[in-house]
Amino acid sequence: MLGTILALPAVALSITQNSTYTNPILPGWHSDPSCTFVAEEHNSFFCATSSFLTFPGMPIYTSKDLINWRLASHVFSRTSQVPQIGNTTVQNGGLWATTIRYHDGKFYAIVSYTPESPFVVTGFIFTTTNPYDDSAWSDPLVFPLIDIDPNLFWDDDGTAYIQFSGIHQQTIDLKTGALGPASIIWTGFTKFIPEGPRMYKKDGYYYLMIAEGGTALGHHEAIARSKNISGPYEGYSGNPILTNTNTTEYFQTVGHADLFQDASGNWWGSALATRSGPAWQNYPMGRETVLFPVTWKTGEWPVLQPVRGKMSGWPLPPQTKAIPGSGPFIEDPDIVDFHVGSSIPPHFLYWRFPPKDAFTVSPYGHPNTLQLRPSKSNLTSTAPLTTISELSFISRVQTDTLFSFSVDIASFEPKLLEEEVGVTAFLTQTQHLDLGIVLLPTNSYSSNGETKLAPHLRFRATYVPANTGNFDGTVQTVIKLLPENWQDGPIRLHIDAINETHYAFSTTLSKEPDAKELIGIAPATILSGGDGPFSGTLVGVYATSNGGAGTTPSYVSRWRYEGKGQDIGNDTFVPYSPFIESH
Ligand SMILES: *[C@@H]1O[C@H](CO)[C@@H](O)[C@H](O)[C@H]1NC(C)=O
Ligand SMILES: *[C@@H]1O[C@H](CO)[C@@H](O)[C@H](O)[C@H]1NC(C)=O
Ligand SMILES: *[C@@H]1O[C@H](CO)[C@@H](O)[C@H](O)[C@H]1NC(C)=O
Ligand SMILES: *[C@@H]1O[C@H](CO)[C@@H](O)[C@H](O)[C@H]1NC(C)=O
Ligand SMILES: *[C@@H]1O[C@H](CO)[C@@H](O)[C@H](O)[C@H]1NC(C)=O
Ligand SMILES: *[C@@H]1O[C@H](CO)[C@@H](O)[C@H](O)[C@H]1NC(C)=O
């Protein structure tokens, strides 16, 4: 592929300008990416990814060099924009597959909401002129959708169209939401699950690029074109145009692509991929965002470079971190101390909406802590869920194959049985690994004959049966009395991805950081697939009364997350993803 790119006559390229970078560009759960280039916004790139049940949702990332990506904003940051998220029980429901586009000075984010299966889909369109500010995103234009994955496209005459799975197309009035009649314009190359459509107009053709095969090992991209937007569309004889199906590549499930040009006119594409290898068993980070170079000569079909861990292609724009906004860069570690007057970091996520007043930074009397009010429901609650329950759970995305996460439990004085605060690696409410401090009965009795309660460390794994998920085995619950001299704390709780396949949960007194004691180990296959085949692992803290009447708050401090390495396939680890070398 490298030869193909360098042989291109249209653009003056020299070998010295060629660049290499590594995938994924948005590591960790960043599925269903849509990316676009906006010259008017200082030659910046913008990518949107799916958020499902997490809130704030619909993250937008921005970069000027395709390598350094910063969280620009969340389109969905006010519960009133999509109140349905608070009522969504199915673990894979919520907001799927945002498409981001820029048109006439405005950013548009279009998305579908899916509450449950069978699908009852709703479409939402949000707009802004300031993509760096959550609050600048509009309330949505809401419209009915026949199917998922809406795309937005303007023809030269200004008519706006949506395309969505099927592949359907209809016109849309962006002021009123009024839709024209829907028609199926292409059923795809394999005709199996045609979805994720993109429309581009180039050299007198409408190019319709779609994902097919379902978002698993058979996922791939196909393309068709027509001189009339309504069709008929002619499929390309070279389909599929992007696939890792039936290869031994570490990056699998490649699809849901989008194409865009940089300031030099070179084409690029984004897609989702899963770092699982063809075994597709161990992939706790779920579907991530990858970048690939594209050559697209006049009048011809685009050529998409296959997705690998290490990529070569077009010269990248000059590297810079001078990007507006206050969000973290994707590879930044978390060093969060909840200082007085600070806010909860913008990349921290809740599962559905946070309970009212559940999280307070540095409340009176507890400076430099995050106060958690427990939810009655624990992380499992009534899974498989039939009722909605609010969870006192706050998290971030696991963005590295290997990482180290820890928090201090600065103070926690539980009074009632089963009051608990802890750390979790969480995929869904049916798949999570928790290490908590919890009030449990002891073997001793008080003078009035009642069992004495005392804080314990408890490690437990919640997982789906082997016929639903990727884990076939058992993980023993570990319960240990908290040493008496630990009760003044602070106590540090750790989660480490010790290798690609296992998480270790350990603890120590914060003042003795090197005296870590291992409490439990669990396999990452628990956090792969199952009820969460479309999402990826979050790490964070939770507080719960486990169904009891307890309301004791807990105080968390010194939140740390640090990447320790990305596996990019073929036993190659890189310190951060993506890194860059110039030849
Ligand atoms: C959520 O559920 C509650 C209780 O059933 C209902 O009152 C409310 O209207 C629902 N909200 C939405 C946005 O569906
Ligand atoms: C891989 O190739 C085999 C044999 O050609 C085919 O039967 C199988 O369906 C392919 N796998 C996928 C996921 O397409
Ligand atoms: C495109 O196709 C539609 C539907 O067949 C037809 O009504 C329309 O006239 C065509 N447009 C052009 C520009 O040919
Ligand atoms: C990963 O760690 C687990 C737990 O220590 C161990 O059983 C497994 O063999 C390790 N895997 C590799 C590839 O080192
Ligand atoms: C969650 O809480 C319920 C009671 O509400 C309890 O039965 C269950 O064991 C708890 N599970 C976990 C994993 O916390
Ligand atoms: C990794 O190894 C496989 C087979 O050994 C090979 O097909 C693939 O191209 C390699 N990938 C990279 C990025 O080197």
UniProtKB/TrEMBL annotation:
Pfam families: GH43_C2 (PF17851), Glyco_hydro_43 (PF04616). The keyword Nucleus does not apply. It comes from the Eukaryota. Residues 1-22 form the signal peptide. The keyword Iron does not apply. InterPro entries: ConA-like_dom_sf, GH43_C2, Glyco_hydro_43, Glyco_hydro_beta-prop_sf, Glycosyl_Hydrlase_43. One of its GO terms (molecular function) is hydrolase activity, hydrolyzing O-glycosyl compounds. Residues 342-562 form the Beta-xylosidase C-terminal Concanavalin A-like domain. The record marks D149 as: Important for catalytic activity, responsible for pKa modulation of the active site Glu and correct orientation of both the proton donor and substrate. Keywords: Glycosidase, Hydrolase, Signal. GO terms for biological process: carbohydrate metabolic process. Belongs to the glycosyl hydrolase 43 family. This is Glycoside hydrolase family 43 protein.
